[in-house]
Task: structure prediction
Amino acid sequence: MSAKELSRNHVIQLAIEGKCTVAQAAERLNLSTRRIKQLKKDFKLRGSRAVIHGNANKPSPRKTSDALVQQIIEVRQTPPYSASNFTHFQELLLRNHKIDIPYTTLHRILTVNGIKSTKTRRSKKQAEHKTRERRGCEGALLQADATPFDWFGDGNTHALHGFIDDATGNVTGLYLTKNECLMGYLEVLRHTILKHGIPQGLYPDRYSVFFVNPQKSGDISVEEQLEGVERAETQFGRIVRTLGIDMFPAHSPQAKGRAERLWETLQSRLPVELALAGIKTVDDANAFLPEFVRQFNKQFSVEPAESFSAYIPLPAHYDLDRLLCAEISRSLSSGSTVKIMNKTFRIEQNKLAAKTRISILFSAKHGIRAWANGQYFPITLLDNITLADSVIRTGDMPMVVQLLIKRFLLSDAKAV
Result:
């Protein structure tokens, strides 16, 4: 019998013995006089059992069954579920196993069985950091960043590039490459424009993809001077300027707090989702990411303060496939060849004369192509290079270019 039941038993006995009135007993037990009379009557018939709750000593109907607890533990101990944080695991139980269980109950089951969450809470000092107020409307400002991480759990790191809308927390695009590079950011920009439109502003760090070293910001080529360019800019800078996007740098990771918190969440969740989907390659991951982003935004985005959208629809005259490329300018030789990083490439064409100025375009979507007089031309690598030799080891070619050459020009190469 509980302390409350003991007290009720004592007071009802006093009322029956006439040592206190019904009104006094009601006031003492905080019950109505009608209820006291019912208890007195019941007490005379059943004794002390009258004051004991009917569910006493009975298992709660809401108690989690031993079989369900065992099932949850078995699922939790199975990779990749074992790598998920508790909140994510609760979602996976419902989605994949139709187990709907309150978080507090799940937390108790797991911790009682010695299982700890893989995601630690932020420290009190971190929690006290003042969050910058969000922009009022979507599209006004996108934070841009990339993070290296072992996304496939195989010991190899890859860089995940992403933009996050400051007003809503919407992820507008994610793209995975071997290293942080121009190609990754261009593909995120492509996804953003096609899905949402052209944003008003972009807020990256001072990485060389976005901004020229300040000591070299005044170095511009003759061609750029003739085009009216006043200061040196990166290829990404030229592209966003063409699109009319304002871009300015963050001077610390804390300044891009929403992007930093996004990486923390993705590093906890995305590897588990990739493993559950059986995805082990970059190409498969990039095909998977758009649907992952859609579901992620559905769960984590917030309503903006203003209903107005600062995204601008892409004008019809823009060719994104032409614009979103790394570009190298060369003069065509008499044999329709050009040199790139000391490697010889042939432009497959019969319309262009020698010394014609052409652009060599690099993109993750289309690989390597030539552009001249408003037309695309195929390109072939002439040097005796195969998948197994120095093209991947040479130091005179950026990694992103090496990988594009390997993927688009050497996929059918034979060893020599």
In short: The mean pLDDT is 83. The radius of gyration is 33 Å. The longest helix spans residues 257-276.
